[in-house]
Amino acid sequence: MGGLPLIVTSHRGSSAFNLSPYQGDEAGLKPVIQYSYDREKIVPYRYQVYLDEANIEVDYAPSHQSAVYSLTFEKDGPAYLVFNSRNGELKCDGNTVSGFQYVDKKTKVYLYAETDKTPEKSGVLTSETVKYGKSSVEGKDAALALAFSGQKEIGVRYGISFISTEQARKNLEREINSYDVSAIARIGRNEWNDALGKIQVSGGSENDKTVFYTSLYRCYERPVNLSEDGKYYSAFDGKIHEDGGRSFYTDDWIWDTYRATHPLRILIDKERETDIINSYLLMAQQMGTNWMPTFPEVTGDSRRMNSNHAVATVIDAWRKGVRGFDLEKAYEAARKGIEEKTLIPWSAAPSGWLDEFYKEHGYIPALKPGEKETVADVSPWEKRQPVAVTLGTAYDEWCLSQIAAELGKKEDAEYFLARSYNYRNLFNPETRFFHPKDKDGKFIEGVDYRYSGGLGARDYYDENNGYIYRWDVQHNIGDLVSLIGGNEVFTAALDSMFDTPLGKSKFEFFQCSIFVICSFISGRFLKPSDIFSRYVQPFLWCIFTHQQAGINDFFFGSVVADPACFFIFHHITIEIRRC
Q: Are β-strands 15-23 and 79-93 bridged in parallel, bridged antiparallel, or unpaired?
């Protein structure tokens, strides 16, 4: 491992700051020290590890915006702590270290740290030399070294903030008043028991319970609460705002979370789900476009993946009784995000030619083999993803139609409901797959539903192939069953997807089937026809009816990126059926 982390700023983002404990010859000091390690123990509220070659015992417990380390040095000789900012500034004053790191060009994360012992000396670490007496440093890999003589155990506690160093200090003082890792871990353990205890299970083995609650724990991974003493930093306009008593959340990758994580949260934590939706509306306003976010992160909306699925989160919450947000504002932000922002994947550009084509013809056109891309906003890596975008947008427009109906906007409801059938425009009745079409309305020839579309099938689909996108009509399952040929043909088609070998390595094609994920994480093997006959077929019409009142509680959970929440719903569904 490269040093010890102080904060992970995003689910996929790198850590900000590093803490590197060291004992030995001063010449071995580096801004970030690489460790081998053993005896690692991880629970949600505590992390323990032994840095075996360095002979240092590490004990760590996090709070909300602060944390504490206990470091035990087993060798003889002076001990050192190296604080590193990968791109920013650090200052040392006695037993305190403070500073910031740029997360991107405009967003900073701030640090305030204290040690339980005052260092004998401290200085700036550059090129493996410590300039003692110098107390501040800035730039790339800005590092400070604190030297402790004759100390075998050193405590470090710190606060973090996206507002200021002073706020980081306040966050620390609010949450941690000692260097007792066990005391902070006990508080964390109680909080996690309260969170995970919202779902009680019975039966099964201890291992089954461990898998279940580990999956539930992972459902809390994001989004993150950025409110600090009633204020928050928003990268959506680069300003600090008052939160008005309502927590501000970000780092919610909605393409990954709308199918299962949000529906689960509605059931177990309605208040937080309300705050998250209100955060969406604030983001839309702060961006100046009033476009609903798609991939809000600490650094703003990265607009990753495709479609605009926050609209599903809004109608799902409303239909299940969540009322603490302005539905009219949510509708406008969702509509603008779909109609005014381009549908091009991974793009925040205004709508253009591809979007006008979609509005007129009801599908995103694919390029013919060998045809050059002429739309500048299309990423050369992510491509148009025409089938994925068409199917995803049809679902989003169905959600819009449902919100419009709730608001009494009859014309809008009818308009978007009609558009929600656009998936039919890409259904190939001969193959019974969703098939890319060119701008002339002709199906692309020679498509292999396993392989075609390049890496990740992005020329036609997205991070999966035609076999998976065959089922992506989540708002009208009955029509999908009819298109494919009825219940028996539908069940056989599910078997066909599962039984047809891919014939390539994962490197050659990123393949991630919902059914493979389901079987893998639950530790049991179920063929699609088993899933259909056990859970879908007996409740098919119940599901259709249920989906008019709420979205996605039962059917498949999450297609790709939400396996933990799918696992939770998978087992909750079993219990519902037994009742």
A: antiparallel
Helix axes 310-319, 270-286, angle to 10 degrees: 140
The length of the chain in residues reads 579
- CA-angle at 139, arms to 169 and 297, nearest 5°: 60
CB of 78 closer than 8 Å to CB of 147: yes
Q: Distance (Å, rounded) from C-alpha 34 to C-alpha 291?
A: 43
Give Cβ neighbours of residue 280 (< 8 Å, ≥ 6 apart): 292, 293, 296, 310, 313, 314, 330, 333
Taking residues 471-487, report their average pLDDT.
96
**CA gap 246, 230 in Å, rounded:** 8
Instruction: Give me the pLDDT at residue 574, please.
Output: 45
Residue 338: closest CA among 318, 313, 368, 358: 358
The answer to whether the beta carbons of residues 297 and 10 sit under 8 Å apart is yes
38-43 and 46-51 strand pairing: antiparallel
End-to-end CA, the chain: 48
Q: Which amino acid is at 308?
A: N
Q: Tell me the two tokens of residue 519.
A: 């079987």
pLDDT at 569: 72
Where residue 552 falls (left for φ over 0; alpha for ψ -120 to 50; beta otherwise) is: left
Distance, in Å, from the CA atom of 345 to the CA atom of 364, rounded to the nearest integer, reads: 11
pLDDT computed for residue 510 by the predictor = 53
Which one-letter amino acid corresponds to residue 136? Answer: S
Residue type, 158: Y
Q: What is the DSSP string of 409-433?
A: -HHHHHHHHHHTTGGGGGEETTTTE
Q: Say what the pTM is.
A: 0.90
- 339-341-343 Cα angle (round to 5): 85
Residues 532-551: tens digit of each pLDDT: 454 444 444 343 333 333 33
Block residue for tokens 């709508």: 351
Residues 30-87 pLDDT 10s: 999 999 999 999 999 999 999 999 999 999 999 999 999 999 999 999 999 999 999 9
Amino acid (one-letter) located at 198 = K
Cα–Cα distance between 94 and 75 in angstroms, integer?
A: 25
Band of pLDDT at residue 153, cut at 50, 70 and 90: very high
Return the DSSP state at 281: H
> Sign of torsion, CA 337 342 346 348?
negative
Token reading at 312: 């599903």
